[in-house]
What we know:
Blueprint: E1 7-9, E2 16-18, H1 37-70, H2 82-87, H3 94-101, E3 106-111, E4 120-126, E5 134-140, E6 143-150
Antiparallel strand pairs: 1-2, 3-4, 4-5, 5-6
Amino acid sequence: MFGKEKFEKCPTCGEFILENAPMCLHCGTQVKRKFSSRRIIFICVCLVLSITCFTWAIISLMDSSSSSVTGGSAFKDTTISMSEFNKIKTGMTYDEVVVVVGCKGELMSEVDIGYSEYATKIYSWEGNGYAGSNANVTFQGGKVVSKAQIGLE
Ligand SMILES: [Zn+2]
């Protein structure tokens, strides 16, 4: 892009001046110049590319953040469904269950006898079925040991 310096004639005094000079060195006339069409195309392409990249980055950012919250579900998920319930397996951690269900459960009871590996916690999730439908998951030492559901669809 740089290197070869092009010259043009000053419109006022007719002396040769550098093509990109803002004013004539000989008579001081300010040279108003239009961007060359090639430069305009270049700037447009840069703009479009950067906007595209920016938009894409925002979208992928929103995608990754929403999928980490909803566990990949396209919809905002605040309840547990039958298929989500079926994905809960014995030995999963609470965090893994939250990812599967798509939202945090409500801690219903906690029994801690002093050893964290034997601490029992029961979490409840609101079901997607009729009002009152729900799923309870029992964790012992941070791992799923049993689960139960009522009215999930
Ligand atoms: Zn001049």
